[in-house]
Design a protein that fits this description.
The chain is of the alpha+beta class. The chain contains 3 helices and 19 strands. The radius of gyration is 22 Å and the shape is globular. The N and C termini lie far apart (47 Å).
Length: 335
Amino acid sequence: MKLSALLLLLFSFNVSAITADTQSAKLWLERLSQSLRQLNFTTSFVVVKNNQAEPYHWLHGIGDKEQELEIFTRLNGPRRDVLRQGAIVSYIEPEQEPYSLISNDIQSPIPAIFRGEITKLEESYRFISVGRSRVLGRVAQLVRIVAKDKYRFSYWLWLDQKTGLLLKMAVLTRQGQLLEQIQFTHLEVSEQLSDNLAQLQLTELPNIIQVTSQKQNKVLSWQVDWLPPGFAVIKSNQHNLNTYNRGDDKAVEFMLFSDGLTEVSVYVNPSKETFRAAEYASDGATMVFNHILQGVEVGIVGDIPLATAIKMAESIVPAKVDDIKDDSPHSVREK
């Protein structure tokens, strides 16, 4: 066989193998999404980062009329319970009046996209089915959600072969450094709704509140002129922050961006200082960045590399009138 023909054969084989791994990964991710929405399960897990572990307890089930029910509880520190009946999510915390919001997702360390259309992430991530291992005494399939560029992190998921549910998740840098992980410590799947969820189904949740204090429709004065490919604005507003509890209220413009998997919050406000060197700290995968440049303070919080936060912060510019649309408080351009 000629060398050129052999190389072509090897190339074709590699392409076929990669395609098969990608398709297998997509099927596993679709199964994960379906399982998170349709199964009755009780589980506990810990979030491990910076050599510390934060434990959580999570119940999910399907009640009458196919309504999803959830209870999510943080087990360490002040108790915080999140309850969900269908499209109503309630938050119960100490020293705060319980309240409810209209939402289909609870706030938790598990990305909400995992119960949605995960394949929408293909613009920014590659899906790879790798192999099997043993997690929580179960056979688990490893699926990697690999970032296509240097501006975001990659995610490894270990999925239960029997149920499709998540058993472990790791967040890694492009160089393979482990930033944080979620390790499930208990998983029970049942045909019947748990007693706690059955009780939740009969419970009257706190009143639904409307967030009206934030100026949702106000045209913002600043815009982020650079975003990593795939990121888009999903929320923006202007509100007041009490600085250091000294009664020093200041107006802050807030923008929330997401690529479907990762969310990044940006805060912009005028400052009495002209310049302050960049300050940053990481908490596992979460980067907190702040600087003052030319009298403008910029804060960025999100699960992104430091270089991404810096590039976003340095791209903050006054909003251009020509770019402002009636249905959007500001515009964002990708470069």
